[in-house]
Amino acid sequence: MAMINGTCSDKVIEVLKKIPISKRRRVKEVTLDMANSMNKIVRISFPKATQVIDRFHVQKLAYDALQEIRIKHRWEAIDQESEAIRTARYNQKTYEPVVLANGDTVKQLLARSRYLLFKSANKWTEKQKERAKILFAQYPDIEKAYSLTHSLRMIFTHNTDKNIALTKLAHWYNKVEDAGFASFRTIMNTIHDHYRGILNYFDNRSTNASAESFNAKLKAFRATLRGVKDIRFFLYRVAKIYA
């Protein structure tokens, strides 16, 4: 096992080249993100491997764009509430926030809607359904962004054929253009730049979810130690716990 500080492509390639080329040529597929450094590492180190852009990295771009819209509205709600509080004080009155049908204030609605936007509507709880209905009525742009995010996820979830997936991505591009969100247009362009690797997902539906999960476990374990000084002993403990 080798540990490399950072993701500098030249350093990683140097370590991987210690593996005989005959073995590296046996690698048929590598899942990765859209970083140019990872592309270079795989291209040089595993020349026979197909590069597969991990679907969750693509979907995360859409989730981030959706949450960006929600957060923008939340800051606006905070500013409006602060202004209303100042006005009430100036008029020597007590500020009473508007309470929505589900008991949330507008600020609470936008804060508490975070997690439901990551889920499909059929997985919402009854409270989340009620909250989403109010949220989308108050902020149609959030509903539109949620629809774009959900439809992108469904392309990956329900398709196994590259050509069908490519056609559906083209339809998704049209929806993005109609919606007019700059952030989603950026995602569209990013997908277009990496579409070959993204479409390779539909061959075997491979992801690096297990590697990401293991990485999260390592980070949590390292956090409990408040840092690592003895790397060899750390790797020994990791092997004993997770191997």
Essential attributes:
single chain; 243 residues; mainly alpha; 3 domains; two-stranded parallel ribbon; 13 helices; 2 strands; 3% strand
> Which value, in Å, is the CA radius of gyration?
23 Å
Please list the strands of the largest sheet in the order they lie side by side. Answer: 1-2
Number of strands: 2
Distinct helical segment count:
13
Report strand %. Answer: under 5%
Note the gap between the termini: 12 Å
Helix content: 55-70%
Overall shape: globular
Q: Mean pLDDT, nearest integer?
A: 91
Q: Which residue ranges are poorly predicted, with pLDDT under 50 across at least 5 consecutive positions?
A: none
Provide the structure class: mainly alpha
Number of domains: 3
Major sheet details? 2 strands, parallel
Give the H and E element order. Answer: HHEHEHHHHHHHHHH
Notes on the structure:
The chain has 243 residues and is mainly alpha-helical. The chain folds into three domains: 1-53, no CATH class; 57-200, no CATH class; 208-243, no CATH class. 67% of the residues lie in helices and 3% in strands. It is built from 13 helices and two strands, in the order ααβαβαααααααααα. A two-stranded parallel sheet has the order 1-2. α3 links the parallel β1 (29-32) and β2. The longest helix has 36 residues, at 55-90. The mean pLDDT is 91.
SSE arrangement:
Blueprint: H1 9-16, H2 21-24, E1 29-32, H3 36-45, E2 50-53, H4 55-90, H5 106-112, H6 126-138, H7 140-158, H8 162-179, H9 182-193, H10 195-199, H11 201-204, H12 209-224, H13 231-242
Parallel strand pairs: 1-2
Helix pairs in contact: 1-3, 4-5, 4-7, 4-9, 6-7, 7-8
